[in-house]
Each structure stands twice: as structure tokens, then as C-alpha cells.
Amino acid sequence: MINLETYGWNNRLDQQKQKSIHKALFHGRIAIVHRTCYEVVSEGGIFQCELTGSLLFGKSASELPCVGDWVIFQAFDDHKGIVVDMLSRERTLYRKKSGTVADRQAIASHVDKAFIVQSLDGNFNVRKVERFLVQIGEAGIEALLVLNKADLRFDKEPIDEAIEHLVHRMPVYFTSIHQPQTIRQIGESISRGETVIFVGSSGVGKSSLVNALCERPVLATSDISFSTGKGRHTSTRREMVLMDNMGILIDTPGVREFGLAIDDPDSLTEVKEFPDIAESCRFEDCEHINEPGCAILEAVNNRTLDRKVYESYIKLRREAWHFSASEHEKRKREKSFSKILEEVKQRKADR
């Protein structure tokens, strides 16, 4: 018998289940998403489940179950089952689906903390950190920054300068799998029953970091590539792991591109060090681009605000605005199409 409280089950989720017409069935949490089925952790063990037709064809791709979702399922012999319902999502991390204009991809749900992993082997990029931080903040998830491979020789001063505008937003950890005390610091920040996710680019050492954190080999790792000197991409799927005496960890494949999928471009000012400065803008709805009396533009001009930080903000804001506008138009078209379908059905009924 598996105690689902160790996987994050609580009274609030139980109250949701009691409102479902399927409340008499089993419930569980999505641990792994395969192409056509889901591995669901339940009190009775791990079940291989598929979706009912109404779920499979009645939801958009971003609404289909992802790792971390809680579902209700009909169990059969041989630990197989059919997912018949999903509980409401909370704190879901999305990204823009590659190759699309306004499609979201759900990465993980019911996440409490997100560790943004960067490596100190020459691949550090503060702009990528900002990008992850924006999306994590949109989801209402607590962000933490992990600067990995700290055993390598690196110049700490420029790193500190690069993240100066972010340190008040989240804790920063310098880690190395060869320095156990640095890994323990991360473990101490994770409470029992909390769900945490590790995100970052390929080759930053996430899988090795997870194994060191769990003190056992739970994820496959690769050696450093001799041709590039970088870590090879290891994880190929999102996977949930239960950590001893800690919480629940979700590992994700490294990403080359992490497109923003946020509805409110104005929320970007919260990620940067802008809020205090923005209060001095002449107009409350100032977009900080070319408005007269903009305190942020003035701060850039007098060099109290780093121009690179500001330019990154503008780039992310344009991207977020483009997604938001495209998403709005898509929803508008879908609503119009649904209305047409209803009218067609009504005409047939009236005949």
C-alpha cells in the first residue's frame, strides 16, 4: 500500500475528488507520460492508464494530463486502467510549444518550487535564467537558482554581477556533486510532501545533481562530450521521483528553447528590479518603451539600471505580448467556431 500523502495528496485535493461523479473510483498522480499512456501512482501501486475518449478528444493538447496531475481512474487487472477525470490544476508550469504561435505545453503541475539549473562551465547565461523565472513566476511557483559544477575553475565576480538584479527574487545555490555539503543545502530547502521541479538547458548536470540529491542512481547520466566539452543531454522525458525523507522531484529534459506562454506581459516588471522604479513613472499604465516621464528609461539613461537588463525585459515583453495577443485571437476563433457548431446542432434539432 502506497501512502499518497508522501506524493502530495491532501484534504483540498480530497474535497475536489468528492465533487466528481467518479469519486468512488481510485485516484492517483501522473508519474510519467508516455506517448499513448500514463504511469499513475496510486494507493494500490503503479497503473498503466489510457484516457477515455471524452478526455482524449474533448481537451486541447495543453489540457491533457501532464506529470504531476492528479487523476481519477477505473482500475482493471494487471495494473491497467482508464483515466476518467482530472482534478483541477494548480501551479502548473507551461512553455510555448515549439513551432507554434500560441500553443502551450504543460510541463508539470502542482509544483511548489522550481530549481533553475545553470552550469558554471562557460555555458552560464543570465538571460535564460530570466526567461525561466518569468514563466515560473506566472505559475505562482517559488523559484530557486542552482549554479552547478562549482568545482570547476570560474570567475565568480562576473557571475555575481550578472545575477545582482535577481538575488532578491530567489535563493542562489552554488553546487557540485563533488562537494556533498552543497547538495545537502538544496535538500534542506525541500520539505516533506513538497513537489519540486528541476529545469534548465541540456548538459547542465541536472540528472547527476538529482542522483546526488537522492543519494542513489534514479536517473541515467552521461559523460562529458569530448567533441564539445559539454555535458550530453540525458533525460528524454519528464519523470516524477519520490525522494527519501524529502519531497517529490520532477526531472525534465534539457531544453534548447523555452518560449514564454504568459497572458499578462505587464507581470514582467515583477521579475526584473523594476517595480520600485516603475512607481515613479508619470503614467500608471506606462509600458516603459517610449512614454514621457518613464522612470525606468531615465534609470537606464543615468546608468542606475543595467541597459542589458532593460533590453532583455523589452525582448521578453514583446514575446509575451505576441503570445498573449495570438492566444486571445485563437480563443476568439474557437469561441466563434463553437457558436457555429451549436447553431448547426440547433437547426438539425428544429427540423
Automatic annotation (TrEMBL):
Residues 109-256 form the EngC GTPase domain. Its cofactor is Zn(2+). It is found in: Cytoplasm. Its EC number is 3.6.1.-. CDD domains: YjeQ_EngC (cd01854). Gene3D superfamilies: Nucleic acid-binding proteins (2.40.50.140), P-loop containing nucleotide triphosphate hydrolases (3.40.50.300), Probable gtpase engc, domain 3 (1.10.40.50). GTP binds at residues 148-151, 200-208. Binds 1 zinc ion per subunit. It holds the Pfam family RsgA_GTPase. Keywords: Cytoplasm, GTP-binding, Hydrolase, Metal-binding, Nucleotide-binding, Ribosome biogenesis, RNA-binding, rRNA-binding, Zinc. It is an enzyme of class 3 (hydrolase). It comes from the Bacteria. SUPFAM superfamilies: Nucleic acid-binding proteins (SSF50249), P-loop containing nucleoside triphosphate hydrolases (SSF52540). The keyword Membrane does not apply. Zn(2+) binds at residues 281, 286, 288, 294. Belongs to the TRAFAC class YlqF/YawG GTPase family. RsgA subfamily. HAMAP family: GTPase_RsgA. One of several proteins that assist in the late maturation steps of the functional core of the 30S ribosomal subunit. Helps release RbfA from mature subunits. May play a role in the assembly of ribosomal proteins into the subunit. Circularly permuted GTPase that catalyzes slow GTP hydrolysis, GTPase activity is stimulated by the 30S ribosomal subunit. Monomer. Associates with 30S ribosomal subunit, binds 16S rRNA. This is Small ribosomal subunit biogenesis GTPase RsgA. The gene is rsgA.
